[in-house]
């Protein structure tokens, strides 16, 4: 019998069943679905402030984003075997307004519970030379649980890569340069404490207010922001934050065009919040279409994501098509 031509052939020869499926849960990171709590630092409660329209933007801004792509490529029995790609990049914009790549990193891996694989399948994977991310055996008792465990593992890998690039970039920033991160600052002491680092958060599963204050925060008008507050609950490192609206929500959804911004927990952040909000507001143009999240997606962040996807493995990118059975006709 001839030797297998590749690790994929070896996997099938070992008894794994080849598939191609991106689970519906394969979305980006989500906040915790709870009321996390907040402590006011600018006003006694949630007030609304206009951002400074026309506030000058920093001459140089660096934008950081990451992607996670993954799909189930095999089943060993009912145990899913996931192939994943995570990547992050920093794109810098200077006086000429052109975005250029300043730093990037990527990682490809296979995610599975190695101990639960049949010996032949495990041997084929180990001989492939691919990086293996092992899942705990108690998290893969059912296919649904295994997929969620794989999703979390891929997400952790992406977050770690973004943190690595973000901290490296922050340590190199010039005195008049800023870093804008798609995500949070509060998981990194370096980023959370940097005077010229910002985070923009597009998802709002975690809420920090309740009752009338929640309504005031989530219905803030375009060109306005809420009072600066200190998030409580999930933050590992202390930051200040505020909500800011980019586009009108009436006729759309209460979260349409809404960002949450994180910055250093310092009185300078409170003084600068309206000025920062003013130049952030202009980063919504040009529109980040055709992305469905265009209303909350700053264009330079969209540019970073587009750059990363252009360099990603093509077979992991979502493609339009049907999952109806192939009949051969």
Question: Which key terms come to mind for this protein?
Answer:
329 residues; nine-stranded mixed beta sheet; 7 helices; 28% strand
Q: Roughly what is the average pLDDT, rounded to an integer?
A: 90
Strand portion, in percent? 25-35%
Total count of helical runs of at least 4 residues: 7
Which spans of ≥5 residues are poorly predicted at pLDDT below 50?
25-33
Taken together, the total number of domains comes to 1
What is the end-to-end distance? 33 Å
Q: Which overall shape is indicated by the principal axes computed on the Cα atoms?
A: elongated
Structural class: alpha+beta
- Main beta-sheet strand count, sense and barrel state: 9 strands, mixed
> Number of DSSP strands?
13
Rg estimate, integer Å: 22 Å
User: What string gives the helices and strands in order?
Assistant: HEEEEEEHEHEHEHEEEEHH
Helix content: 25-40%
Report on this model:
- With 329 residues, this protein is an alpha+beta fold.
- It has helices at residues 7-13, 119-126, 143-172, 189-192, 211-218, 267-282, 299-310; strands at 17-21, 38-40, 48-50, 60-76, 79-93, 99-112, 132-134, 177-182, 197-201, 224-226, 229-231, 239-245, 258-264.
- The strands form 3 sheets. Strands 1, 4, 5, 6, 7, 8, 9, 12 and 13 form a 9-stranded mixed beta sheet that branches. The chain has a two-stranded antiparallel ribbon with strand order 2-11.
- Helix 1 (7-13) packs antiparallel against helix 2 (119-126).
């Amino acid at each position: 019998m001839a030797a297998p031509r590749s690790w994929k052939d070896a996997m099938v020869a070992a008894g794994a069943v080849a598939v191609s499926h991106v689970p519906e849960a394969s979305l980006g990171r989500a906040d915790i679905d709870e009321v996390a709590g907040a402590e006011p630092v600018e006003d006694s409660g949630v007030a609304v402030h206009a951002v400074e329209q026309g506030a000058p933007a920093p001459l140089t801004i660096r934008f950081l984003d990451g992607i996670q792509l993954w799909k189930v490529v095999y089943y060993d029995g009912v145990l899913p075997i996931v192939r994943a790609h995570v990547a992050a990049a920093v794109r810098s914009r200077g006086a000429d307004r052109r975005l250029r790549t300043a730093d990037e990193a990527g990682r490809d891996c296979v995610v599975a519970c190695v101990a639960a694989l049949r010996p032949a399948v495990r041997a084929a994977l180990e001989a492939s030379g691919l990086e293996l991310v092992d899942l705990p055996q108690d998290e893969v008792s059912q296919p649904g649980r295994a997929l969620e465990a794989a999703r979390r593992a891929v997400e952790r890998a992406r977050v770690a890569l973004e943190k690595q690039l973000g901290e490296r970039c922050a340590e190199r920033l010039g005195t008049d340069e800023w870093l804008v991160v798609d995500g949070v600052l509060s998981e990194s002491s370096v980023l959370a404490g940097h005077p010229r680092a910002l985070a923009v958060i597009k998802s709002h599963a975690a809420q920090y207010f309740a009752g009338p204050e929640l309504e005031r925060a989530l219905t803030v008008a375009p060109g306005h922001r809420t009072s600066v507050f200190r998030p409580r609950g999930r933050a590992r490192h202390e930051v200040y934050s505020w909500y800011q609206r980019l586009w009108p929500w009436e006729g759309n959804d209460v979260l349409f065009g809404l960002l949450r911004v994180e910055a250093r927990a310092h009185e300078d952040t409170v003084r600068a919040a309206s000025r920062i909000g003013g130049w952030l507001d202009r980063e919504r143009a040009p529109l980040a279409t055709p992305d469905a999240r265009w209303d909350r997606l700053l264009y330079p962040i969209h540019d970073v994501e587009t750059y990363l996807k252009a360099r990603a493995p093509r077979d992991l990118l979502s493609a339009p098509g049907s999952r109806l059975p192939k009949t051969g006709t």
